[in-house]
Amino acid sequence: MPTTKPSELRKLSVAELQKRIQDTKKELMELRFQASIGQLDKNHRVSEARREIARMMTVLGEKVKAQAPRAKKA
Fold it and tell me: What is the reported pTM?
């Protein structure tokens, strides 16, 4: 999976982001398994997947924070 720019991620809905995060976490688990048994050819894919997850979680956090009602000061 090629890396996705944050501007492209911001266009996705919260549900789509959560689905992509879940899929990328599954991919990361498979990559780690392959690395542990010595079958992983592209070692850099592990760090790319981690960064991709972090990128998506950051955008998801921005969206959730923007949707939350602001607390009024007393």
Answer: 0.84
